[in-house]
Amino acid sequence: MSEVLFYLGAIMIAIGGICDLFGAIGLLRFPNFYVRLHAATVGTIGGAVVPLFGVGFLALGSNFLPHKYAIAGASFVTGIIVLLAAPAGAHALAYAAHKAKLVQWNPKCDHLTEVKKHD
């Protein structure tokens, strides 16, 4: 069982590196603020949360670590905090940028403006 956890953790760390790479490419290649914000969130969730869970599994699968449960617990708790905070932060940034009209954007349908007109 410890070998399965070890290899699962190593695979999750590699997946996190790939997500970071895709997020960085998206930040460079995507056309506007909102889509780049999506790429940054993918990079954060895939590039931080998945490897943190991988480190937790890797620590649980390692018999040579003296404090493996503390390392795994801290990794899982940190991953859950990032998992909850990153999308909320991205949403707050997108909403503030839209409300302040800082970003030039011409959508076909803008639901936030429609809600404002009805109020």
Overall number of strands: 0
Gross morphology is elongated
In terms of structural class, how would the helical and strand content be classed?
mainly alpha
What share of residues is helical? over 70%
Oligomer: single chain
Folded structure, characterized:
- The chain has 119 residues and is an all-alpha fold.
- It is 82% helix and 0% strand.
- It has four helices and no strands.
- The protein has helices at residues 2-29, 33-61, 68-100, 111-118.
- Helix 1 packs antiparallel against helix 2 (33-61) and helix 2 packs antiparallel against helix 3.
- It is elongated and about 60 Å long.
- The termini are far apart.
- The mean pLDDT is 88.
How is this fold's topology laid out?
Layout: H1 2-29, H2 33-61, H3 68-100, H4 111-118
Helix pairs in contact: 1-2, 2-3
Features:
mainly alpha, 4 helices, 119 residues, elongated, single chain
Short description:
With 119 residues, the protein is mostly helical.
